[in-house]
Amino acid sequence: MGEHVTVELGHHVTIDARGWVAQRVGDDHTELTASLHDWGRLQHLTYTSLDWITRAELWCRARGYDIGESGPVLHDHYQLSAPVTILLAVADDHSTIAIVSIDDEPPTVYRDITTDEGYWYQVDSLDIVCGCGRRWNWTGDELIDADGAATTVAAVFGDTPHTPFTPCPDCAVPVDDLTDTLCPTPGVDPIRCPHCGQRCDLELAAVATYPQQRLHAVQVTEPADYPGEQSNSAFDPGNRAYLRWQQLLAEHFHVVVWSTEGTGRPGFVTLEDRDGGDAFTVAILDSVQVRDPHVLLTITVAAHLLAYGPFDGAQAAVSAAQRLARARTDIRATCPVPLHDFRQRSLPDSVWRAIPSALADVQPAPDDAPGAALILLDRVAWRVAAVGPFPGPAAAERWQPAGEPATVERLVVALQPALPADLTTAVR
Description:
By secondary structure, the protein is α+β, with helices and mostly antiparallel strands. Among the domains are: 88 residues, no CATH class; 68 residues, no CATH class; 124 residues, no CATH class. The protein is 17% helix and 33% strand. The strands form 5 sheets. Strands 3, 4, 5, 6, 7 and 8 form a 6-stranded antiparallel sheet that branches. Strands 18-19-25-23-24-20 form a 6-stranded mixed beta barrel. The chain has a 5-stranded antiparallel sheet with strand order 12-11-10-9-13.
């Protein structure tokens, strides 16, 4: 099996808790860990009933750290080798952190390097890997192949009591030293590749992470030497596109951000090739922030559903609907809906909208757009909500809200970019 996955007593899978955590974290913030332990022990002297993760919450609040909306996350899944408790927070001086306690031990403060908070909820997702190159992501009774197609375990590996495991034929046959080969994994039922018959391995599902390299920051103290100061006076350093751009750049370049003293506003970014040393500088001019994200649900005459966005507010989505109706002749109805941030697991009532009658019998439109949105249809309460934006359909499929009603229907749809003001008939 894989480095952090073992199989015992035939078909019982065990995931190493420390290996699972190691996928999601960067370096240990030793100074923060020491501070938390010192502070927590003093708190315990006064409030003896507080567990470590509660003390960690109080420690974060005392330091002014923003705690994730979901609060502490406890995983006591039967496949984990030990229970794991996680508290995610944003520390101004150390960016995003993950406070992790394994088996109720005093927690460690790490740098959180996941690109999606949802990876902290993904416990029982494993990859079945064959030496012939085939791979499936296995979660519960579902499989997703390398092309993103969803199927079931039984459809690929057969409908047996312990599928995808099958009884080991090498262990079942009496050993004859002259004719038989000893089983390489005695006592463990194998997973046989349905295509080549080889034994497959189990590995932890991959987790998309940010690089650990930190950006360099340079402050410019002479405004006269900084011609970009006036042009980017409205620039927001928290712009999500700018932050993601920085993260992508750090994977390939040495990055220097030039910012003004006092405001911290970036003016230039210098990119240096890691190998050759060549470099160039780009100016940061302005930014646009989406404060009230909405998507425009669009239903075609063929009863296909897709979405455009994000737009900044419902009015912007409505304006886009008017332009879209002029460019496409197959639009039957449109509906602006708030786009709920997928990093927040709870769905407030404010994100739901009444379902238009045109949504009665729709199906997601076939589309190859890179982004995706999750559309939730509550046909009992006759309302609709949208969640996203996700990097792709697989991420949208995995997302699970807290307390989702059993009556909710889930539709994963392609998310087209927000429509430009000069829309032409080239729009799909």
